[in-house]
Design brief:
This protein is an alpha+beta fold. The protein contains seven helices and 13 strands. The protein has two domains: 85 residues, Phosphorylase Kinase, domain 1, CATH 3.30.200; 159 residues, Orthogonal Bundle (Transferase(Phosphotransferase), domain 1), CATH 1.10.510.10. Strand 4 and strand 5 form a beta hairpin.
Length: 256
């Protein structure tokens, strides 16, 4: 039974549904296959190909701190594919930080417009809660890296949900890499969000640039996430485009 719509995008709608027999709640992602197949995703793949790859990875993952895939409904005669997962009713870590900082939005905007940057204020979550979330995420990453041989590649507060027990849950494996049949975790291309890129990712292809190791880049992104959870803001400031962000990350020390 459909209860309500949780979100809607160009290719998918997320619905909150209830099993009428068990009364258990699930999130169902309804995706338009035709639309996905028409969208190019690079390397000769369509967005639909990427969705199928993500589902293959999710079916291999079974860990309390990783989103639980309950069922995939894909009738070849129908226009939609349905992804049934657990419902993370408490939102994401990004949501929790945003709620705490909502009270500062107007004062911060005024301070910025008037050049009073030293009065701009952000707050993070309680350190005792962050410690528990961090332990949850380390467990999830260890499982991904050492057991399932999967690199997440897009760790950030918006991709970390909170389950009914208040535990952190890693979600969104849409750009993840399967390194099970490779000799190591070297990645051939950059994926993810620029704000969470490790320095070596900006040096790909340049003389003296290092190989991109998946496990290390996941851990770097987790570190940036930890900084954000503690402070309510990212460690890099002032960048208006990816090039400026690259220079800041490569040349600026993190201010604790």
């Amino acid at each position: 039974m459909i209860i309500k719509t949780l979100g809607k995008g160009s290719f998918a709608t997320v619905l909150l549904c209830k099993d009428t027999q068990t009364h258990e709640l699930f999130a169902i992602k309804k995706m338009n296959k035709k639309a996905l197949k028409s969208k190019k995703a690079g390397k000769g793949k369509s967005a639909y190909d990427c969705v199928i790859e993500e589902l293959k990875l999710l079916k291999r993952l079974e860990h309390p701190n990783i989103i639980w895939l309950h069922e995939i409904i894909d009738d070849q005669k129908k226009d939609h594919i349905y992804l049934v997962t657990e419902w993370l009713q408490k939102g994401t870590l990004g949501d929790l930080v945003a709620v705490k900082n909502r009270v500062f939005e107007s004062p911060n905007k005024a301070a910025k417009e008037e050049g009073r940057d030293d009065e701009i204020r952000f707050v993070g979550l309680a350190p005792n809660k962050i410690r528990l979330y961090f332990i949850d995420l380390l467990k999830a990453l260890y499982y991904c890296h050492k057991v399932a041989n999967i690199i997440h590649r897009d760790i950030k507060p918006e991709n970390i949900g909170i389950n009914h027990n208040g535990e952190a849950v890693l979600i969104d494996f849409g750009v993840s890499a399967d390194v099970e049949n490779r000799k190591d975790d070297t990645l051939e291309q950059n994926m993810g969000s620029y704000m969470f890129f490790a320095p070596e990712m900006f040096l790909r292809g340049q003389e003296g640039g290092n190989e991109i190791k998946g496990e290390r880049t996941d851990l770097w992104a987790l570190g940036i996430t930890l900084y954000f959870l503690l402070s309510g803001q990212y460690p890099w400031h002032g960048a208006k485009n990816p090039l400026q962000l690259k220079n800041i990350i490569l040349e600026t020390d993190i201010d604790f």
